[in-house]
Each structure stands twice: as structure tokens, then as C-alpha cells.
């Protein structure tokens, strides 16, 4: 296959979707529907860019959560010369590349990292993607020496040297090699001796994903995890430096790419931590000094994906105490995605209700703080404290029951539209082809009016 796969997935045009939904009130929209608050997305993206800029860090935006050009534009901002992207599917990369004129300024370069350890079967598609992106535009991830044979195919088709990141396992144990492992050394030896001399590949960085940070419970624990992640990558970098020195070659100023939303977001507010206690102030100052020292010989890059949208799982990590929320903690007012659903039946004898939205609209991932599959509120509120949660879930339906520990639940009625705060925004969004966009920064009587439709990429 020598082209992208976007033509395999038919979908309506954006214009037809806008004609159908824009200016309609959410109460008149068929459900289930995925609703995104543009003002919250913009605020969350600006926070991340400002935090990285304050520490002189590079930022790589993961697009796997939303898969849209509009949110990608907000993620990359406009201050850097290169828009750095990481994708989970080649369909995302092809979609963004084919529509780059819609979201990326002409004077900016685009670098896309395929964030899955390289599948040999995808070498041809990656080659054509690299050809489209041009020199330096494509990066791939490797964590096994047998993946390197595919690099030659990518190089031959693209006509450009392939940028390589080695995936390092810093504790999540999903993918990657250990910082001082024999496997890492065999990868580097093969790259350095067989690929780089022929300009087939360029080892440019080390990459890790701190997925285990989702189980942390404070911003400062997340910050500590981020520093440990950097230390592990620097350990791997020292291993690589030694291999290059033995061959008489100078050290590289590798990119150390770290993050996950809990750890990446922990750096927000570091430039203003006057309200923290003495211990936390010292921890924040120590982290800043560590970053400054490391940046002398490494380029530090932060990556994250769900942060523009956020979800109930992220509330559990309490990743940022400096947000515009009444209780000073991250709250549902900072969550951009809710699922519009309708109450279709009430069961008073059971104290339950039925909604016409199930696993395919909400996902089925747990949350540490409660036993349900989503929290419920009336549509026109920004609080999930109504006493209802999704207790049981099936493919197309869910059962609402009283949220354990909550006060008496609010009354529900058949035909009522409710909003569902999903546990995991990445999975909940996957059931929809587009987002209905609202804007909470508008006057109150306009906040439930659809102002745009943002189409999601589909496929693999």
C-alpha cells in the first residue's frame, strides 16, 4: 500500500455536520453524543505550554485522546519552530499530515513520532509518510533489535534518514528496555555500526511513558516520578555514551522524552509555588535545579495526551492544585469531555434508572476513587455531585444507581438529558466520529449551544 488509508473510512463532511448541529441546543440533539468544551480545552493546553516554556522544556503533543486537528492546533501553540507530535496509530499521522494546512502554519516544521515500537508490517506506510513529511519529519520508536530491519525499508521509500527513539522501560513494564540491559546495548551497537554509517538512521533520543503514574495521589508524588523517569533515561543515555566513546565517537545531546499526563502536568505552577509548605517548596526548587543541570548536555522533552480533555481518572491523581476551581483542586470544571445521554426509564422499587448509553459510548475502565463507570449530573451544571453514578453497564445501556456515600440523589425523569463524566476520556471518545463543541466562556444562555463540530480521525 503506497498511500494513506483515510479513503477506507467513509464519513460525512465537516460542512454537513456543521449544517446539522451548529446553533442547535444540546437538549435538541440526539444522544448519546460526545460534547467537548472548547474553552476548557484551550485553557488546559495553554497551561501545559506555559509550564514547559517556564522551564525551557520542549513539548510533544500526543493526539491519541482526541484525534482532531482542532485540539492538535491548541496543543502545539505557536511559539516553537517545530510542531512535535506523537501518535498511536498511523491513521492519526496520515490524517494530520494530509490536513496540515488546516492546523499548522506554513512556516513551521512538523515532526511526527510513531509512538508504538516499530511493527515491521507498517514499514511501507511509514516510508510514504516520511516521504510526505520530508527530511527530519518522521521519527519511530524501537525496543528490539529485530525491528531495525524495517528501518531500511522506511529509508528506501522516504528517501530520508529515519530518526530513532529507543523506548526505555522506567517502571510501567508495558514496553521498552531497561536502562542498562543487554538488549539496549545490542540495539545501540547495531544502529551505530550498521545503520548510522550509511545514513539509514539517526539515533536522536530516548522515550518513556510513565503509565504507572496514574496510581499516584498528589502533584508532588507525580513530580518525583517525573524526576525518577528522567534519571532512568539519563542512566540509559550514559550506557549509550559509553558505547560511542569506545568507538571513538563523541557523546550525543540526546532528547530525553518523558511524561504521561499526571507527571507532565505536575510541573504546572512551579514558577509560582509561594503557597506551598516549606518541604514542597524545597522539592520544587530541587526539581528546577535538576532540570537546569540535566539540560546542559541533554534536550528534555515532555509528552502527554489526555491533559487537554482530562477525566475522572485524572481527578484521582490530583495532579495540579493551582487550577481555577472552588476547592483549589482539579475538579469537573476542568474536564472538557462529557457524554450527552437520555434517561429512558425509572425503576422506583430498585432505586435505579436506565440510560441509553453503554460501553460503546463510555468505555469500561475503572476509577480508583469509586466503583462506578461514570458520574452523572444535569446537563447545564459543571458538578457531578448529584448522587447518581453508572453502576452497571452493558453494550448500549447503563443502570444508574445511588452514588455510595452521597446525599439523597436528585430526582430523574424519563426523557431527561444528563451529562456523564467518563472515567477515561480516551476510550469514551473512541465511540464517536466527532465532537459537538460548546464554549463555557460564552454568556450563560449560550453555553449549551453547539458552536462547532470537530471530526475525529478513524482507523488504524
Automatic annotation (TrEMBL):
Tell me what reaction this enzyme catalyses.
D-serine = pyruvate + NH4(+)
Entry annotated with the keyword Cytoplasm: no
- Annotated protein name in UniProt: D-serine dehydratase
Family stated for the protein in its record: Belongs to the DSD1 family.
Sequence intervals crossing the membrane: none
Reported cofactor(s): Zn(2+); pyridoxal 5'-phosphate
InterPro entries documented for this protein: Ala_racemase_N (IPR001608), D-amino_acid_metab_enzyme (IPR051466), D-ser_dehydrat-like_dom (IPR026956), D-ser_dehydrat-like_sf (IPR042208), PLP-binding_barrel (IPR029066)
Amino acid at each position: 500500500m503506497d498511500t494513506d488509508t483515510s479513503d477506507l473510512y467513509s464519513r460525512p463532511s465537516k460542512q454537513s455536520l456543521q449544517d446539522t448541529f451548529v446553533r442547535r441546543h444540546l437538549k435538541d440533539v440526539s444522544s448519546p453524543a460526545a460534547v467537548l468544551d472548547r474553552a476548557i480545552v484551550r485553557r488546559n493546553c495553554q497551561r501545559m505550554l506555559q509550564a514547559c516554556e517556564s522551564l525551557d522544556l520542549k513539548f510533544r503533543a500526543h493526539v491519541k485522546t482526541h484525534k482532531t486537528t482542532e485540539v492538535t492546533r491548541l496543543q502545539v501553540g505557536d511559539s516553537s519552530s517545530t510542531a512535535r507530535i506523537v501518535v498511536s496509530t498511523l491513521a492519526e499521522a496520515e490524517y494530520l499530515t494530509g490536513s496540515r494546512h488546516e492546523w499548522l502554519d506554513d512556516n513551521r516544521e512538523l515532526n511526527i513520532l510513531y509512538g508504538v515500537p516499530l511493527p515491521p508490517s507498517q514499514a511501507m506506510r511509514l516510508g510514504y509518510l516520511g516521504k510526505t513529511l520530508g527530511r527530519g519529519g518522521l521519527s519511530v520508536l524501537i525496543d528490539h533489535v529485530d525491528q531495525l530491519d524495517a528501518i531500511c525499508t522506511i529509508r528506501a521509500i522516504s528517501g530520508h534518514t529515519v530518526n530513532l527513539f529507543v523506548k526505555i522501560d522506567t517502571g510501567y513494564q508495558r514496553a521498552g528496555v531497561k536502562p542498562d540491559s543487554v538488549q539496549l546495548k545490542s540495539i545501540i551497537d547495531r544502529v551505530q555500526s550498521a545503520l548510522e554509517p550509511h545514513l539509514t538512521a539517526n539515533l536522536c533520543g530516548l522515550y518513556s511513558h510513565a503509565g504507572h503514574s496514574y496510581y499516584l495521589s498528589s502533584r508532588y508524588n507525580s513530580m518525583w516520578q517525573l524526576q525518577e523517569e528522567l534519571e532512568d533515561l539519563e542512566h540509559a543515555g550514559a550506557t549509550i555514551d559509553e558505547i560511542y566513546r569506545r568507538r571513538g565517537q563523541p557523546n550525543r545531546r540526546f532528547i530525553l522524552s518523558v511524561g504521561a499526563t499526571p507527571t507532565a502536568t505536575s510541573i504546572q505552577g512551579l514558577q509560582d509555588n509561594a503557597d506551598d509548605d516549606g518541604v514542597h517548596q524545597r522539592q520544587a526548587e530541587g526539581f528546577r535545579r535538576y532540570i537546569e543541570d540535566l539540560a546542559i548536555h541533554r534536550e528534555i522533552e515532555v509528552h502527554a495526551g489526555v491533559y487537554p480533555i482530562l477525566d475522572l481518572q485524572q481527578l484521582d491523581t490530583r495532579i495540579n492544585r493551582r487550577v481555577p476551581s472552588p476547592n483549589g483542586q482539579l475538579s469537573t470544571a476542568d474536564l472538557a469531555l462529557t457524554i450527552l445521554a437520555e434517561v429512558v426509564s425509572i425503576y422506583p422499587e430498585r432505586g435505579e434508572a436506565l440510560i441509553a448509553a453503554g460501553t460503546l459510548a463510555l468505555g469500561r475502565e475503572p476509577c480508583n476513587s469509586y466503583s462506578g463507570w461514570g458520574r452523572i449530573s444535569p446537563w447545564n451544571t459543571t458538578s457531578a455531585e448529584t448522587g447518581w453514578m453508572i453502576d452497571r453497564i452493558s453494550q448500549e445501556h447503563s443502570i444508574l444507581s445511588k452514588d455510595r456515600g452521597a446525599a439523597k440523589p436528585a430526582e430523574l425523569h424519563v426523557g431527561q438529558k444528563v451529562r456523564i463524566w467518563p472515567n477515561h476520556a480516551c476510550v469514551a471518545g473512541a465511540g464517536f466520529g466527532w465532537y459537538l463543541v460548546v464554549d463555557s466562556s460564552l454568556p450563560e444562555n449560550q453555553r449549551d449551544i453547539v458552536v462547532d463540530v470537530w471530526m475525529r480521525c478513524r482507523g488504524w
